[in-house]
Amino acid sequence: MIKFKYVILYVEDVEKSMAFYQNTFNIPLKFITPEKDYGELLTGETSLSFASAALANSNIKQGFLSSQSAEKPFGIEMGFTTDSVEDLLEKAIKNGAVLYENISVKPWGQKVAYIKDPNNYLVEICTEIQ
Fold this sequence. Notes:
It is built from three helices and eight strands, in the order βαβββαβαβββ. The protein has helices at residues 14-25, 53-59, 85-94, and strands spanning 6-11, 29-32, 38-41, 47-52, 78-81, 98-105, 111-116, 122-126. Strand 6 (98-105) and strand 7 form a beta hairpin. The radius of gyration is 15 Å and the shape is globular. The longest helix has 12 residues, at 14-25.
C-alpha cells in the first residue's frame, strides 16, 4: 500500500512557523522534537510538517533552494478552504502573512485569495468548489 503521508516545509524557525499555521488555520500539534528542529501538525491523514534548514541540509546532501521573502514564491501552493475567505485572510495577515493576490471570484463561483506565509510559501485561501 502507498499513502501520501506528509509535506515538509524547510524553514529557519520550526516553532515560529508551526505557530503561524496553528494560530491562523487552527491546526493541532501532532509533535515537535525536543531539539525543535522538526514538527508535524495534524491535518487529517496527511500532516503538514516543518524541518529546520539545518536539519534539511544534513539530509539533502545535494542542497536545495530555500524560500526567500524577497523572491517570488515557489511554483507550488498549499490550499485551505473556509466559509469566510475575508475573515481567514484578515487573520492570516494579522498573524504575519503577506497578501499576494487579493480575493477574486472564479467563473464557477469560488472565492480565492493568495498569501505568502512568513517563510514565503504560497498559500491559497478559498471557498469549497461547489
